[in-house]
Amino acid sequence: MIYILSIIFVLGVLIFVHELGHFLAAKLFGVRVERFSIGFPPRIISKKIGDTEYCISAIPLGGYVKMSGMIDESLDENNLTGAPHEFMSKPTWQKAIILCAGVFMNFLLAVFLFGMLTWSQGEAVIPTNTIGRVAPGSIADSLGFQAGDKLLKINDNPVNNWNDVGRSFLQNLGSPITYTIERNGQIKSIVLNTAHLKIQDIRRLGMNAYHPAEVGQLAPDYPAARAGLQEGDRIIAINDSAIADWYAMSEIVSASPGKPLNFRIQRGDQTLEVQITPQPVTIQNPGGTDQKVGRIGITYPIQHIEVAFLPAMAKGFQESVFWAETNIQGFSRLLTGKDSPKETLAGPLAITKLAGDAAQQDFLNLIRLIAILSVVLAIINILPIPALDGGHLVIVLIEGAMRKPLPVKVKMAIQQVGMAFLFLLMIFIFYNDILRFF
Fold this sequence. Notes:
The chain is α+β, with helices and mostly antiparallel strands and about 450 residues long. Helices cover about 45% and strands about 25% of the residues.
């Protein structure tokens, strides 16, 4: 049930904000709005106020604002009379603003949500530039990275903390990345050629930050919380094995589902002995098969730096721009064949799982997911595909350059082709989701 409620909430917020942008811009320029719908027909609830019918409809995969004098997904060609309140009667610049308003509102929502998360929680930072673990057989391993290496620069940009590492991979995908490291007092350079890599290959990078074996957050109803562990506890030994870092601890725990383990804990000046039995959890290993591992329900500590409101909003803008650039790059790689649609595109089923998983972890994680998806929705809608905002915008700009409208039959044909394309794309994405899950 939490998955269904989460996806309804996520899609409801995204669609409402997007369509509200079109609605407010249309009202600003005196365009009559005939219908404001969240979801696609059949209608469940509707109420007419003034000239506008407000609807909640049954298919929650989108929404629409039906404006007088505009040929859109409704394919209604009988509302073109040339009246002053019609969309087509407005100047090109006003029509362009109305069409872009939904995209703008989605981006603004992302900026606001990212900013509020930063303001309320502080900026989440992993305060290290030292490699704690290099996975055997990973990309980092093949390049010669080692645990204990300090990352000084990435393409001449200083590495202030571990947050810079993942971002650099995504921002420079397709180009060489030069890592400047310090190892045993010596400075070395390692070059990663990403020309042949895909976005998903960040999982295979296999280079993790150094974390002490210290308790950050505890998950309720997991063995560590039940055993009385506290935030800030340092795990110094398990059974007879001394624990040097987070990875040494997690390897023992993962390999011991259902087996009692004796933990030696440093808490301030005290040394405590606690027995904890890792809870068996089934995960999917890199080979795609299920594997049972142990989990005790703790995370490593993450530093949260307090940020004032206006700087937090500035960071929200930066985060939104980062996700926009990442998605633009992703769509570009799809079009050029560098990434596979099967591996990259996520549909309603995948988003439902993401939303449900985020909601189970923390409501703030769900808000962060909404912010990310709001940027994705903005980028998708501005693509120059008929039936999307970007497709409508192209038609409006062509008509503006020609100084006359395109024939109604041409517009109808363009909309029909666009809707057929989107319908086929949706079938593919649903099929892709089903294959991914089953």
